[in-house]
Amino acid sequence: MQLAIKATGEGAKMLSFLLSKNPQNLYDRMEKGHRVRFTYTVFSDREVEAVIFVTPDPVELVKNSPDTYEITQYINDREFVVSSIFCSYIRSALGTALNGRPKEEYLDWAKYAFQLTIGFGPVATDLPDAAINQLFEPLGYQIEIERGQAAYHFQLKERSSARFINLQGTLTVQNALKHLFVLIPVLDNYRHYFIDEREIEKLERYGEGWLANHPLKDLIIKRTLRFRDLIELVGTNNPVQPDDEARTPEPALKSQPVVRLNELRYQRVVKLVENLTAKERIVDFGAGEGKLSVRLGFLPGVKEILAVEPTEKEQLRALKRFSEASGQEDFISPTPIWGSLFYYDEQLCAKDVMILNEVIEHIDESRLPRVMDTILGSYKPKVLIVTTPNVEYNTVYQMEDQEVRHKDHRFEWTRAEFTEWTHALAGDYSYEVRLEGIGEEVEGYGHPSQIAIFTRQGGIENE
């Protein structure tokens, strides 16, 4: 992780006084178990460049984490990418400049607009390049985004999703740092700490003088605070994002939706199940935190819900959700099952309904035939409901080519590809299939999500 700040032109040497770091000394400190180093790579009368590096301790990063006992804790990018973690580590080193309080004889320079060049990265962000430009350009920056090539030995993608951001602008050092300390976490959209009211104070302090008039203010606030109750405290009328899972920018629709796409999917799936004649026994595959399973538990006629999920952390959240709902009248509490689509489980056979809500796109396409053979050939549910993103709609979300809505998506299909896949399965396994869309339709692009309802021939679909 690194951040470089270069000042050129008149007064460039004052950068060292504003940063409160002597160019003759190497700044080398341990911050919460991680190494922070600060040095000057260029130092002349009209050009000064300061670079700050952070070398995290990967063991310290996962201490006291709920993921400690999962192997996935070792497969992450946190020790490599600029994020909220990086900002917290460098805050002490840059505190003087960030607060705009150098020694008294340099106070006038704290208000001086330097010609600054700023580079930081790598950044792992789900935002498209166009959205990154829209974050920085209104603040007076010229922006250049660099990507590395992804030289895989198999067909996955041609370029890296990690990016290096280079900014140029004429502004004070303090304002530049304020922008970075707000927008770097917005780009990464990850927090390594609990978000509470203190985050509002930080946002107000660093956003003072620029955030209120920023055209993407609502998006910045939403991705900073993450939770609706905190967002309401700052009084923003923030439009929804297209998905809980996919942190993409707002779609350029004629009218903004009033509910999340994720919510629309839940509503559609629940309505479909509600209208089925046979719905006593349900399997919710990839149940996650149990949001859909809980809703299904309130449907009349449902007697059993198996919430299948491979991730322990998600199952714990689901258990809490099931427990909170269990006291309500006429609620059938789902049964959590640790399981995977890749392993056969006899207890999942011959159910009335099986649901794969935004699941298949997380599976490598080469492994899908085996998965679907297990479901349709072995489990043989009366009805199978599958939802998945419509990649054509990503253009409406102003996403880049080849960019997917979530970093774990292995593919996203067009409407034609989904139609071909579903009809082939229906023919191979003696099912009938009906295709629909979910969310606001845009001419030429379809709906943001697509849904397939498979009905076993000889089974009963709707009343």
Which architecture of the largest domain per CATH?
3-Layer(aba) Sandwich
State the secondary-structure class: alpha/beta
Largest sheet descriptor: 7 strands, antiparallel
Name of the CATH superfamily of the largest domain:
Vaccinia Virus protein VP39
SSE string, helices as H and strands as E = EHEEEHHHHEHEEHHHHHEHEHEEHEHEE
CATH fold field value of the largest domain: Rossmann fold
Lateral arrangement of strands in the main beta sheet = 2-3-4-1-5-7-6
Features:
463 residues; alpha/beta; c-terminal autoproteolytic domain of nucleoporin nup98; Rossmann fold; 7-stranded antiparallel beta sheet; 7-stranded mixed beta sheet; 15 helices; 23% strand; elongated
Q: Can you describe this structure in just a few lines?
A:
This protein is α/β, with parallel strands linked by helices. Helices cover 30% and strands 23% of the residues. The longest helix is centred in the middle third of the chain and has 16 residues, at 173-188.
